[in-house]
Amino acid sequence: MAPVVAILLAAVVAVAASLLAPAAAELTRVEHPPKSEGSLSILAVGDWGRRGQFNQTLVAEQMGLVGEKLDIDFVISTGDNIYDDGIANTSDPLFKECFTNIYTAQSLQKPWYIVLGNHDYTGNALAQQDPAIREVDSRYLAIAKSFIVNSEIADFFLVDTSPFYLKYWNSSKYDWRNVAPRDTYIETLLKDLDDALTQSEAPWKIVVGHHPISSGCEHGNTTELQQLLRPILEARGVDMYVNGHDHCLQHISSRNSPVQFMTSGGGSKAWAGKFKTTSDKIEFIYDGQGFMSMQLSKTEAHLVFYDVAGNVLHTYDSTKTEDDEH
């Protein structure tokens, strides 16, 4: 456990240092180095926090098994962490019931880097980012609404997508503290993301958000993200966009850019039986529960989608040379 504690403490120290940095407009950055041989293994899961119900516990068990096999470095949550309405405060028992008491496998006792989903925003959105929540469970690193996890061979840009949705913004049930005014918030976020992507020297650039840009599942494409976020990803050489929101697993390839769209929103309730069309190419779609793994080196990426029983449903491999790195 000592290495885990060291990593978590290093992450917290890095966050504290970045928050004190004079360049306040920049996205918060967390340093999470890869393994000594230059590899990185992660799991990605979303839409999970249901007190173990809707097969959340079964998905968690399989995550633990795969996590042990791959010796994962960390977990990414694509949002909707606590249903139905987030948490009320940092001592809300829902937090332990949905997170701590479910993801108990030894392999999952690693940092969890968290974005908020729309269901998190209908509760106390700031509570999930409060440092006090890490006193309850030190793994839970929802350290800012948008931030960067730098792993040398990959930069992960976690982006707060809920404010982009106009239908959310016009509803009184969302916690928009530290977000309003919306136009300024989005403009600043997009500029900071564009700057960070431009400056990134990592071989792999991976953007994570709750809402899909391109999707063939129930919610379908997100118009606001298609208009505002997608052009930046395409212009700045992003390799993958990973999201949740749609309670399914899918891999979609862009028809006009190298960007790959990956949905990992099968952490609990799924099987909606509703599909949408998208102009991009659907490589794989599974309207059920599960999660995704990602193994990275400087020149190779290997992604695997698993179902609730741990069966491999789909794999994706990508390679790049030094000339491809950006």
UniProtKB/TrEMBL annotation:
<keyword id="KW-0479">Metal-binding</keyword>
<keyword id="KW-0964">Secreted</keyword>
<feature type="signal peptide">
    <location>
        <begin position="1"/>
        <end position="25"/>
    </location>
</feature>
<dbReference type="GO" id="GO:0003993">
    <property type="term" value="F:acid phosphatase activity"/>
</dbReference>
<keyword id="KW-0862">Zinc</keyword>
<feature type="binding site">
    <location>
        <position position="80"/>
    </location>
    <ligand>
        <name>Fe cation 1</name>
    </ligand>
</feature>
<dbReference type="InterPro" id="IPR024927">
    <property type="entry name" value="Acid_PPase"/>
</dbReference>
<feature type="binding site">
    <location>
        <position position="80"/>
    </location>
    <ligand>
        <name>Fe cation 2</name>
    </ligand>
</feature>
<feature type="binding site">
    <location>
        <position position="47"/>
    </location>
    <ligand>
        <name>Fe cation 1</name>
    </ligand>
</feature>
<feature type="domain" description="Calcineurin-like phosphoesterase">
    <location>
        <begin position="41"/>
        <end position="248"/>
    </location>
</feature>
<keyword id="KW-0378">Hydrolase</keyword>
<dbReference type="Pfam" id="PF00149">
    <property type="entry name" value="Metallophos"/>
</dbReference>
<protein>
    <recommendedName>
        <fullName>Purple acid phosphatase</fullName>
        <ecNumber>3.1.3.2</ecNumber>
    </recommendedName>
</protein>
<feature type="binding site">
    <location>
        <position position="83"/>
    </location>
    <ligand>
        <name>Fe cation 1</name>
    </ligand>
</feature>
<keyword id="KW-0325">Glycoprotein</keyword>
<feature type="binding site">
    <location>
        <position position="210"/>
    </location>
    <ligand>
        <name>Fe cation 2</name>
    </ligand>
</feature>
<feature type="binding site">
    <location>
        <position position="245"/>
    </location>
    <ligand>
        <name>Fe cation 2</name>
    </ligand>
</feature>
<dbReference type="InterPro" id="IPR004843">
    <property type="entry name" value="Calcineurin-like_PHP"/>
</dbReference>
<dbReference type="InterPro" id="IPR029052">
    <property type="entry name" value="Metallo-depent_PP-like"/>
</dbReference>
<comment type="similarity">
    <text>Belongs to the metallophosphoesterase superfamily. Purple acid phosphatase family.</text>
</comment>
<dbReference type="GO" id="GO:0005576">
    <property type="term" value="C:extracellular region"/>
</dbReference>
<dbReference type="InterPro" id="IPR051558">
    <property type="entry name" value="Metallophosphoesterase_PAP"/>
</dbReference>
<feature type="binding site">
    <location>
        <position position="247"/>
    </location>
    <ligand>
        <name>Fe cation 1</name>
    </ligand>
</feature>
<feature type="binding site">
    <location>
        <position position="118"/>
    </location>
    <ligand>
        <name>Fe cation 2</name>
    </ligand>
</feature>
<keyword id="KW-0408">Iron</keyword>
<dbReference type="GO" id="GO:0046872">
    <property type="term" value="F:metal ion binding"/>
</dbReference>
<keyword id="KW-0732">Signal</keyword>
